[in-house]
Amino acid sequence: MDNLELTNYIKEEAHALGFDLVGVARAGPFEETQARLLDHIEQGRIAGLAWFTRERAAFASDPANLLPGVRSIISLGISYLQDPPELAEYGRPRGRVARYAWGQDYHEVLKTKMHSLFEKIKARTGAQDARLLVDTARIVDRAVAQRAGLGFFGKNTNLINKKFGSYFFLAEILTDLELEYDPPAWGTCGRCTRCIDACPTQAITEPWTVYNDRCISYLTIELKGSVPEELRPGLGQWIFGCDICQEVCPYNKKAVPGNHADFAPSDPEDAAPDLLGWLRLTEQEETFRQKFRGTPLLRPKRAGLRRNVAIALGNQAEPSTLPPLQAALETEIDPTVREHLEWAITRIEQSDQETI
User: Are residues 171 and 226 in the same domain?
Assistant: First the structure.
């Protein structure tokens, strides 16, 4: 089997396993990406992620650091876009959860599919030396995907595919196999600045420039401790992640839903949760873990999600939510959560006064 036949075989098997996108990139260093990352660090755009150092940027920009002798990178993508679930109409205040977190933890889903794919590659070629990577590994996955032809960079720095928009997960298989490389993907957003204009916390200051510590996804997931008070109104109803810059993107308006069952909510209500229900749900650690086991929603931990629910209730400023918030405050012992419950109560009381 020559390089082209093997590459075509890998792509066919990847699609059969459920990957929507597959491309192959050469495994040379990503020098331009490293320069951009170092500039982002220098300019303070990655503030809040203490682990993302200059050393990490340099390491991640050369795949040979992960697999000496690597020749090819198989870049894989799978859409998490779902048709919206039907929700019961009732007056309870609802929160918002980023689409990628509606279903199962994508790390585990993609790892399972990648292992199946590599087993097929091994059976066909006898290859043994490879690294299978999903998101958390030290590699510049979006740069790999762009080089492999999966998509181009939008002004919000997300990768955009002209069929699937930006609603897709990425994973990589590093291998010492010699494969046929795909041409890099190129595209343009033209004069569109909708993602920049729509960001309520002004995290996107100009094309391809995002300040991490103002991004709602960072604030609701990665940030430990208090959300800066001046940014809390911008979180709106988001309690885990954010899709705003994706929702306004013209490419996503016409994106084809993958509708993969793994990424559909097990309970349709989880896509737009009852905030008061989740406020009660997160009172007990074990109840929290039972509800969200196997999903990304465990990442901010009980205190983080409870903090986010308090902010969303404060932003909604519905007087009927005061008694549950006050009851939650009476029993809450976490100082950060207490701070945000108090903020929500004060915000609702002030809003109620203004309407009198």
Answer: no
Residues 113, 28 share a domain = yes
CB neighbours of 218 closer than 8 A, spacing ≥ 6? 48, 49, 212
Q: Is residue 95 domain-resident?
A: no
Annotated catalytic sites, by residue?
A: 135
User: Tell me: the pLDDT tens digits for 208-220?
Assistant: 999 999 999 999 9
Phi, psi of 325 (to 5 degrees): -65, -40
Six-digit token pair at 1?
């089997």
Which residue carries 């205190």 as its tokens?
303
Of 51, 343, 348, 97, the closest CA to residue 226 belongs to 343
- Among residues 92, 96, 110, 26, which one has the least CA distance to residue 247? 96
Same domain, 129 and 238: no
How far apart (Å, rounded) are the C-alpha atoms in residues 35 and 141? 16
- The sign of the CA dihedral 126, 129, 130, 136 is positive
Instruction: Report phi then psi at 171, rounded to 5.
Output: -155, 165
Is residue 154 located within the same domain as residue 37? Answer: yes
231 and 117 housed in the same domain: no
What's the domain count of the chain?
A: 2
In a domain, 96, yes or no: no
Do residues 74 and 173 share a domain?
Answer: yes
In a domain, 91, yes or no: no
Cβ distance 80 to 252 under 8 Å?
no
Q: Kindly report, residue by residue over 124-165, the tens digit of the pLDDT.
A: 998 888 999 998 789 999 999 999 999 999 999 999 999 999
Residues 172 and 294 grouped into a single domain: no
Rounded distance between C-alpha atoms, residue 214 and residue 196, angstroms: 13
Provide the H-helix boundaries in 199-334: 216-217, 244-247, 250-253, 275-281, 285-292, 301-316, 322-331
